[in-house]
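Annotated sample (chain length 343).
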Amino acid sequence: MKSLSQFNIDDSDYSEILFQAINQIKTARTVVAQQVNTTANSVYWSLGKLLFEKQLEEGYGSRVVKQLSNDLKREFPDMGLSPRNLWDMKRFYERYHLENQKLRQAVAVLPWGHNLLLINKVQSNSAVEFYANEVTAKGWSRNLLLNAIKMDTYSQVKDEIKTNNFNKTLPEINAEYANEVFKSSYNLGFLGITEPVKELELENRLISKIRAFVLELGKGFSFIGNQYRLEYNKKEYFIDMLFFHRGLQSLVAIELKIGSFKAEYVGKMNLYLSLLDKLEKGENENPSIGIILCADKDHLDVEIALQDINKPIGVAEYQLLLPKEELQSLILNEIKAGDIENI
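Output written by the structure step:
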């Protein structure tokens, strides 16, 4: 077997090829899965609509639905058309048929088990839309969705103060999308860090687990490189991590900081974004976006630092471990509910 060096390619270049190939396959599989889910949910929606329009209710309608289930199962034995499922389809239709198209599209691509979980455990439709989008973006299993619901992730995200200037520096439609894409906090628990590390080590660990980091960032990110070199006026500049977001059509620069946020970080990021827009941005691409990822931030400090900046910059915190109190609470709730299953 020939070594990579005989093909004039080094290990890092090959790793990037492999990474992109895996991403292509995973993206294709996700699209196929969503198409299957959409088709199945369309059938369930139609059956639920039929039961709703015939005004069948549990109680007097139970005999009709039971007979319908028996007859349908003979015709379609592999579709899981039990009386309970038929009633769930009716609830599915009742829950969403008067809601906006955005919400209906969000739940349409979910597996049926995820939809049942949302119907049974989430009262707010805005929360349903949030969880549905998270499932689609991050590929959550049913149990991961259950954990997120029990931790009330929706309320935590909703109550977060946005620490960015997107609304002032991007067109309205882009700003709205950017606020959906970028979070105020990222969980880097997958790194397994239990003691203090230097910024370069943190970066190296993220690079070694870049797939997990891209998953945490969310849907649409493609990794370009770390310590990305820019040269201008005979000077060199290096960006910690550079990504491209397909939906935003923007380069995304991420700077890693071990300590708390400092105002001077904004000036440095502003320079990087100016250089990216001048040297790297494609003709049809939108302005580059910067994210300063630090261990801690005060939203008032961030607000004043971003006040007169004309480049789109956000500041986010990272967590290296799930807070002990949240973890204990989650485990206790799972035990009480008897919902612990193998993921």
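Annotation: Confidence is low (pLDDT under 50) at residues 334-343.
Annotation: Strands lie at 185-187, 221-232, 235-245, 250-260, 289-296, 313-319.
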